[in-house]
Amino acid sequence: MRWLVGWSSTAAGASGIGSAGATGYDGETLHPVGSQLLWGDPDPLWAVGDWRPDEVRVVKADAQNRIAVLGTCGATDEELRRGLFTARGGALRHLTTWPGSYTAVVQVGRRVTVCGDLAGARPVFHTPWAGGTAYATAALPLADLIEANLDFGHLAALLAAPDVPAALRDTTPYDGVRRIPPGHALVLRAGAREIVGYEPVASLAVAAPPADPDRAVDAVRDALVEAVRARLSAPRHVPDLDPGPVPGMGPAERRAARGMPAPGIGADLSGGPASGTLALLAAGLPGRPGTLLGHGTGAGERLLAVTFNDLAVGGREAELERAGALAANPRLHHVVVTGGEETLPYADLDGPLTDEPGPSLVTAARHRARLAAGSADHFTGHGARQVLDAHPARLADLLMDRKRRHLVRPVAALTRADGSVMVPARVYGAARRLARTPYRAGLELLAERLIRHSFDEPGGAVGASLAALTWGRPGPAARWLTGEALAEVSVLLQSGAERSPWGSAQRPGEFRARAVLARHAADLRVLEQAAEIRSQRLHAPFLDNQVVRACRVLPESLRVQPGARSAVLRTVLEGAGVAGLPLGWGTPSHGSSAAAARAGLRVAADSLVDLFSTPLLAEAGLVEARVVRKALRAAAEGEPLPLDGLADLISLELWLHRLLSRRGTCWTGTPARARAVPAGIAPRRGALGAGAAGAAGLSG
Length: 700
What we know:
The protein is of the alpha+beta class. The strands form four sheets. A six-stranded antiparallel β-sheet has the order 4-5-1-11-10-12, covered by helices on one side. A six-stranded antiparallel β-sheet has the order 6-7-8-9-13-14. A five-stranded parallel β-sheet has the order 17-16-15-18-19. Helix 7 packs parallel to helix 20 (564-575), helix 11 packs antiparallel against helix 17 and helix 21 packs across helix 24.
């Protein structure tokens, strides 16, 4: 893991804060483990972890005015200096418009500004500490700093309503540690904190001016090209040297067996449109993607394209054929990684502790098997579906803007999938009902569903679309929560509906799409930590600020059309000079992920039942152990239960076990007690009353 951490004190020299650290409980010097100091007192900042030299840049105007950028940023030092001068006047948005994925920290006198990203893949956390405010890009270091206990209300909301910001609010799994929302920045002035948004919010009173589809797609192409070019322009890195040959293994197999990526740049090549677009862009742009600086003949090596072939579960043969056709490009070097039952979900549940829980913990070993054959810098197509596709609730946005005719094609596609002549009336009625439902009423309806345990939803593509045409819906794991946990989340929703700022100023479709993107970005961050390969960097250009902005400009009438994502990416490639895509490119695969999850559950059923013999979730009062064990056995036998809900439960249980078995802390100089959750999980009593009191405090 890599993060930055710092704090802002109420006055210079307060609490012993200085360039060497701060005074801890027993007078010892306090600073992060494995850190490098970027600047010192009175508001110090550290970079922690295995940052590359080019990933940490500090530009100073003078002793009191400086900017630090951590991550992949396409701005030059002169552009950073100009950005610093502009930020002195309070303007923030321009700090988030450079190509790449990064975190910017600006210090102007005693004012410190930390910018989060639009997707939520690079979050910022904060907590009161030592009379001021500590902040970081990871929650666990702050939890260690204040010895935070678990926030059971947040954990309940993660299971009951993970896509509803009003339920999660700004909390984290650690009590007292808060996160800033996507599209916001944390501003600290001598210890006092303020959270400000840097992105303009569209008005509900006036419809946005219609965007030209061609220009919008061109903007997506330019943003993606710049995002890829920012990675290609960065210095190349060579992983640790190969210690020597192994009989019967080639260089690539030897590196993978030792957990070392190949040098240079590579990309996923699943056969889908997102990964294929990035692989072809990276291989086609100038910059010799596979050549290391100072190595080779200078003629350029091929980009390493990695395809995962699941031998245990079929159903993706067509995608594999398309991946092979794409890999025929002479600029690509194709590697196929095969996996059997040992790479199924739930097959290998050992792994490192991540900053937060996420459903990707149950598939981390599966991804690690693929990434071990990848490159030191590896492109992934994560986020493309969330930023390009239309959430079904966007049909209500079209009705609000009086664009009914654009509903014809998506509704016709659903009718063909279902075969019922009643589909158009049902979809139109649900979209019209959502368009006329205020945000507050939508949250109250969700709270009522949780109280009544109303979780049954129609199946199929039409059923999923109808279920998504709401302001919020119960999570797939909600059906297995205790009545007390559901009641607590329901109380939070009812109280937060009165003053919640999350959705009252947005259209329902736009609001739901942003919430889904934030959840996906958070889970991708968990996956990156859980499946981490030493010396490797994963790049997800679709989650870059500028790419997200360009995709948000795409007209809703274009988004809702069937096959819109593959059509947009095909146009992007054609505009970048890439043609000759294989037949069927962009055709979605059906059921392969669900089939792999069900097969993994069947193989690992006994070990999962043992995991829930005395679960920590039951000790926390969130579930009943026998109910979860019964659901696991039923799902392994093939009953149609929501598999993603079981993944949420299992991953949260795994994360709690790893957190409580952890030793040590993120800080040096602290006594042994100074770490997160020092007392473990105490059985909950009266949780509903505590949750109701907290909700009343929020709304008061």
